[in-house]
Amino acid sequence: MKATIRKMGNSQGVLIPKAILAQLGLENEVEMEIVNDTLVLRRPRQTPRQGWAEASRQIAADGDDTPVLGELPNADDAELKW
């Protein structure tokens, strides 16, 4: 299948037909790389921040969620009036 490279704002792009996107299971985001002079698009291997919520719960359950730097007052804080 051939496709036309089109101007899109300050960039250029290729429109991918909806049927092809559906067939590949691509939705909002793709990983893109060049392999042997070929542009390869694929589904992201994992979603951003995948597993962060569970890791945060485990850290809190272990009691290891105390601030690392502690309290750091600014030098001029004494002059502020709240």
Automatic annotation (TrEMBL):
Gene Ontology molecular function terms on file: DNA binding
KW NAD (keyword) present: no
Region (Disordered): 45-82
All residue ranges annotated as the SpoVT-AbrB domain in the record: 3-46
InterPro entries in UniProt: SpoVT-AbrB_dom (IPR007159), SpoVT-AbrB_sf (IPR037914)
Record keywords: DNA-binding
Pfam family for this entry, one: MazE_antitoxin
Keyword DNA-binding part of the UniProt annotation: yes
Protein name (record): PemI-like protein antitoxin of a toxin-antitoxin system
